[in-house]
Amino acid sequence: MNMRSKVLTVTAVCGIVLAGFAGATGYASAQEPGATPDAPKHQKRVERRDAFLSHVAANLGVTLDQLKQSFKSAATDAVDEALASGKITQEQADKAKANIDAGKAPGLRTLLGGGQRGDQRGGRGDRVERLRDGIVNATATALNMTPEDLKAQLKSGKSIADVAGGNIGAVKAQILADAKAKLDAAVTANKLTQENADKALQKLTDSLDKILNKTRSQQSAQ
Fold this sequence. Notes:
Layout: H1 3-22, H2 39-60, H3 64-84, H4 90-101, H5 108-111, H6 117-142, H7 147-155, H8 160-164, H9 168-188, H10 194-212, H11 216-220
């Protein structure tokens, strides 16, 4: 096995380990210590990461620079694969490659379509909140009431299905129409692929009955 093959063979494993050492820091170059609000901790993470990389390079019989370059090459390959599979758009791929060239490689989760670590904590919560707001606004429109009035009824322990009653069909149609309009806009703006937009709409369609029949307390318990 030649040097490049050996390096690429361990790249994925090293990347996973590095995630624990460096978090969101780039693997190819460290930020200046003063650029972070917690410089001592950041510097320690950088030192641990570099020490780990040096051990990996030594075990592979390559230089540290060769190892880092292999990471950059592997990251670029991963971007191309994510683009080809429809997980990211061309615009996202171009930005990712620009970051790689600048020594700021995207995280493994981003390349695999899972989002960055910060997205898992705050981003997911934001998306759920936007989804709930969209459903409330669409329901209010279908029932010819204000979102505030609807929220007041939901806070009292009712589900959207309870409030809608015999108008549940109109509510579902309005929610799906609004969701499709937003997804279409995201596709047009090159922020989302058509494949992912279709999947998102289908997922909402499949889970809509469950969502509409949940009370506020049941949603909070999840």
